[in-house]
Amino acid sequence: MTRAISLHDVSKAYTRDIRVVDRLSLDIAPGEFLVLLGPSGCGKSTVLRMIAGLEDIDEGRLFLDGEYGNELPPSDRDMAMVFQNFALYPSMTSRDNIGFPLRIESPGADPAPRVDATARMLGIEDLLDRFPAQLSGGERQRVAMGRAIARHPSAFLMDEPLSNLDAKLRNRLRAEISQLTRELGVTTVYVTHDQSEAMSLGDRVAVLRGGVLQQVGTPRTVYALPSNVFVAAFIGTPRINLLRGLVRAPLDGAMTISLGKQFLRLPEPLSLDHQLLRVQQGREVIVGLRSEAVRIAKPSAARTGEVALTGLVEHLEFQGHEVLVHFNTGSRPAVVPDLEAPRPRPERPARRRRREGTVLHRLRERAGALRAGPVATLDRSEQPAPASAEPRVPGDLIVRTTPDIRLRHGMQVPLLVDLAHLFVFDQQGERICPNPARLPDLEE
Ligand code: ADP
Ligand code: MG
Questions:
Q1: pTM (2 decimals)?
Q2: Is the pLDDT score of 340 beyond 90?
Q3: Best residue for ligand 1 mutational test, from 36, 45, 56 (most atoms within 8 Å of Cβ)
Q4: For ligand 2, a single-atom ion, which residues have Cβ within 5 Å?
Q5: Which residues make beta-bridge pairs with 430?
């Protein structure tokens, strides 16, 4: 029987003042493959261990198939865990490792038929008589999976099971895990810090940051409708381009988003999405453009919804099937360490914030744009980026293109931006557009 797993406002604190999991609510359907995704230390393993019963729940409630389960001992939860570090008994053969939990569960029964069936399913029949030391990393992880599967548990809990493997093997096992769990139809909670793994495996992906759930949705939804800058920047490679923008909405002219030396002119009549931007008039926003939102083409080739920019080629990354072109468009990257950091920084005292007497700050204050809550410090251009920020990559806009387009460093190239793929976030990092109403097939 696969089972439904529900967390209601679940919190965990190892020390008095820091909640490593903070009021997490999540409903996992029977048979669902849910991925918990987030940077190292965001509380993923803790959540998994609370579901398994290996860690006490401080606050909140866990329901297994609708029944209150906080105090249920791990052995009564009927779940199998697979860890990153294989965790096989070194003195046992694969056969005994796989059979071990079966022997514990039903001491009288012969585990052989189940062990053999599991080995066949995983294609490890010829490894059954070897000891862990005689197996490669991938083989060991297959045996560990075998041990989890043989018990026919009602849920799999997998904690970064592929992290210790090389990239090629990881991809292969990823496909195998996906196929296997689907065939078995067993509810699976899979923890990873690797966004591409999350996107390729999950029915849904739950993104955690500093113990707080940021968003949960299908891979398609979290990619197309990230709820905030953190999710947008964490998901997708190359990382989304984040630029400083200033919304201008004159009463007598077209609305634009200034990107420094160039601007995006929003086509009239304004889409519903872009109408939402009108209230941002005079404010700084964070513009997000994924590398596929921009193409190399002349303004005359513009389709509806595309606007022109130009970019200077600064760097080329050849990837075989595609080339990533780093352009300088005269924009300023939005360096938003506060919004992208694994854990939000504690709020600074309001008094100190007010003292920052930049012109922009005063303008913003006058525009009434200063809202309560943590405000992103948009990199104020000429200042060097803070030491904690990622090293700057060349250019301010990375665009994907096919290798057949011949480009050289220093070339000035015409670009078209597809405004249907324009993301705008406010200074708190929350998404303003796109508005989900425009993407009816994506639930939020
Ligand atoms: P993740 O799996 O996302 O990397 P974890 O759930 O392991 O994160 O840890 C979340 C946070 O809790 C981290 O800051 C970690 O240092 C802390 N932590 C984990 N286990 C313990 C523990 N037993 N005692 C104290 N702190 C812990
Ligand atoms: Mg972990």
A1: 0.86
A2: no
A3: 45
A4: 45
A5: 228
Sheet holding 187-192, edge to edge: 79-82, 155-159, 187-192, 33-37, 204-209, 212-217
Q: What CATH number belongs to 5-226?
A: 3.40.50.300
What's the one-letter identity of residue 187? T
Give the H or E element holding residue 157. Answer: strand 155-159
Query: Which ligand lies nearest to the CA atom of residue 163 in the structure?
Result: 2
Q: Which ligand 1 atom sits closest to the C-alpha of 208?
A: 3
State the distance from the centre of ligand 1 to the C-alpha of 423, rounded, in angstroms: 33
Q: Whose CA is nearest to atom 13 of ligand 1?
A: 41
Is a pLDDT exceeding 70 seen at residue 377? Answer: no
CA distances from 193 to 45, 161, 190, 207, 257 (A): 11, 11, 10, 10, 34
DSSP state of 441: T
What number does the ligand 1 atom closest to the CA of 38 have? 3
Give the Cα separation of 335 and 376 in Å (integer): 9
Strands 306-318 and 79-82: unpaired
For the chain, give every domain's residue range. Answer: 5-226, 230-438
Of 342, 347, 318, nearest to 405 by C-alpha is: 318
